[in-house]
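Consider the record:
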Amino acid sequence: MKRFVPICFFLLYGASVFGQTSDKKGIQFFEGSWQQLLTQAAKTNKMIFIDVYTDWCGPCKYMDKFVFTEQAVGNKYNVTFINYKIDAEKGEGKNLAAKYNVRAYPTYLFLNSNGDLVHKVVGEREKKTFINIADEALKAGGDKFNLAHLEKTYHEGNRDPLFLRNYLDRLSAMNMDNTAVLDAYFKTIPKGQLGEDATLLYLANQLSGKQSASLDHLIRYYDKLSIASKEKTTNRLFEKVVRNAAGLALTEKRLTAYPDLMAFGKQLYGLTENQKAVMNRYDLMYYGLTRNYQGVKNAGYKMAAQPFAISADSLRAEDKRRFDKVMQPFISGEKDSTKTPGFEEEKKYLVNQYTMEIAEQLYTAAKAFADLPATEHQALADALKWAKRCRELKPDAKVFIDLVKTLEALAP
């Protein structure tokens, strides 16, 4: 089933001060502000464990109910760390999630007593593995070349290329923003090596997706990469340049940055059909924002053509295939539905998952066409057909009903 991921921060003070008692099972989380947490960590010289979660994250709820409550887990974490929870989408959690580049939930952060990141792990874990993570974090905290140490050395001015590469590797391993460090390394590359395959491949594998000198250089010299190197980097560059950089440019309405990023994305070697579909969806958004009506039509027709042609029988067959595949582990006993938060609600969604994916694509294209000028008679008529198909697939969905009404008023 689709699994979610949350982010949370709570602080755990001493039992005598904050009511924490030794007979409580599981992890005891510090209840205070971020600044109070740092003060307590500095005072006790203890590492900090942070559970970063969201309200909608299924795996986060699983960890809360079945792992954090275990006595053995509590024994390990309560003695070893000051434990904290933070919701990545609320209050100070938003800034902290951004600071530590948290993109999936749950994410577990381990900081030294100064509040510097030394270890980072993503995803649901069972009890034994989660206890082992604590040992990994302790080892990382004691490593004199851990991320916190490298960050300190970098800010002290070390720009040795070998040091920068080591720092970049550590940042990448923890999925942290490395833009400034990568550009610092880029400045150390001899001119004669800037166009070499090995140099371009390394830059491609380190890019974070943010605008940078390194990204600009790779865009200019991408054609110099060997086919083998292009194959190795396509998926990463798609995620970093298209999803991250181009997607963020759309979200932030930095529309002048979007065309060059997307043009580069479309040059990537060996793109899958799904990746092409993502780029077409972004183009639809971009053309709508810039009122490029021909662009909207091109992208909209491309999005809707295949979904609109799928028969109702084919939709039902694919719905059943997907549903049976997801449910098989629960039927066989391999997985326990009682330990899957929101199982019954999610089960209802999965019954017609594919049908709703198709309806969403048709709706997105039709909705974009609803903003076309009234003179676009054929496009508006086609959009009305797509919207009516959505309504047929999900008759009780208000957004589909409303869109049909809107387009009926516009279509000739």
User: Anything to note?
Assistant: The beta strands are 47-53, 81-87, 107-111, 117-122.
